Amino acid sequence: MTSVKEFRVEEAATADELGTGAFVFTDDYSVFDWGKMPDSIPNKGASLCAMGAANFEALEAEGIPTHYRGVVANSGEVVPLDETAAPPREMAIDLTRVPDLPHEGREYDYTAFHEEAGENYLIPLEIVFRNTVPVGSSLRSRADPADFGLDFEAWPDEPIDLPEPVVEFSTKYEESDRYLTRDNADYIAGEADVDDLEEVAREVNDIVTEKAAEAGLKHEDGKIECLYFDGEIRVADVVGTFDENRFSYEGQQLSKEVVRQYHKRTQPEWVDAVEAAKARAKDEDIADWRELCAVDPEPLDDHVVDAVRDMYTAGTNAYLDRELFSAPPLSEAVETVRNL
Fold first, then answer.
1. 135-171 pLDDT, tens per residue?
2. For the chain, which terminus, N or C, has the lower number of CB atoms within 10 Å?
3. CATH number of domain containing 248
4. Which residues constitute the domain of residue 299?
5. ∠ Cα 313 316 321 (to 5°)
6. What is the rounded distance in angstroms from the CA atom of residue 122 to the CA atom of residue 96?
């Protein structure tokens, strides 16, 4: 289903009922929409599973519906996160339906998608919320600081706090994600109302921001995905992890952005080739830009893999306020990635 987690179906969803299944988190990673990279990061999958579970349980405690059912313990039993002694790698979830999204080139037929979807489907949107504009944020290329009431002529080379959180909508199932106008997002959402999606995103943002602050982290931005079932929006996929969201600690990124920026510095030929392939695909109306990319990424050096592993595990320990992983103190892990 994704490049970093596997998907197990136990009972398939129908037009009228949710199914059951699980996410199985791997140690794979992806940057720049490449998909599975040529190496992996130990304990990354368990980190994402634990953080995601903690956040889903926090959302449920606040009355926000989700597809989460618990984590899978070594015994195979589905339990709350605090009942596991070892870092979990499987998350039990309710399943909805994901209809095919027909397309010719880069023209996608959402009418056909929703004709099949009915009232039980994964909404084909990502709802993005931003509290800051970090270095590397795509917002910098799509808007000016003045658009948000900021007194800068150009974006400074440092993270900038926004006066109020900003919510945006982007596509989920297209080969190259694109940001949408509100009207386009409302159309693509189908039966789900775009105003309701924004409200849920803002509630999720508030909860993750508060949990991060308790751990000494700053929550900069993130996204959610949602399903629609029987007239109700439920938060789906995984929420508030170091892959879905950007966090920082004492000014240092603590998220997958560390790996993105490292590749920009050390493998610029590959990063440039990716951007060129995406641009060519857009110009030539080709859906899969990867077939146009002439350069492949190289594996990370061992010391980089170790540093990123410690970033994920130490960050998760701090976020959970629990020594779930054997990891250095967060300050030590952050200083290591700061010096990469």
1. 778 889 899 999 999 999 899 988 899 999 999 999 9
2. N
3. 3.30.470.20
4. 5-338
5. 125
6. 6
